[in-house]
Amino acid sequence: MAKLDRAKEYIGFLKAIFIMIVAIDSSLVSWLFKNSYLNSYSTLVIIGISISSIVILVLFKYILKKIEELEEIE
Predict the structure, then answer these.
(1) What is the pTM of this model?
(2) Per-residue model confidence as pLDDT tens digits over 28-40
């Protein structure tokens, strides 16, 4: 039972990180739309949006994989 609880807590932790990265990504996108003129900050924001979007996708797939493993534990 302890292994199952630990796995559930780990998935909950990953979900919290996922929500945080989604919030960062959406705030970067809104900043980019608000400051639509191109400057050096815009380039950095576009890079940040790209990186955070990739991290979101990778983390989402990892969470789904952990949920599948959780079914095997039970």
Answers:
(1) 0.73
(2) 888 888 877 777 7
Sequence-distant (≥ 6) Cβ neighbours of residue 11 within 8 angstroms: 63, 66, 67, 70
Contact 7, 73 (CB under 8 A): yes
Using CA atoms of 17, 53, 47, 30 in order, give the dihedral in degrees to the nearest 10: -90
CA distance 4 to 69: 10
Integer angstrom CA distances of residue 53 from 6, 22, 56: 28, 8, 5
63 is written with which tokens? Answer: 């969470």
The kind and range of the H/E element at 37 are none
pLDDT in tens, 48-67: 889 989 999 999 999 888 88
Task: Provide the residue ranges of all domains of the chain, joining segments of one domain with +.
Answer: 2-73
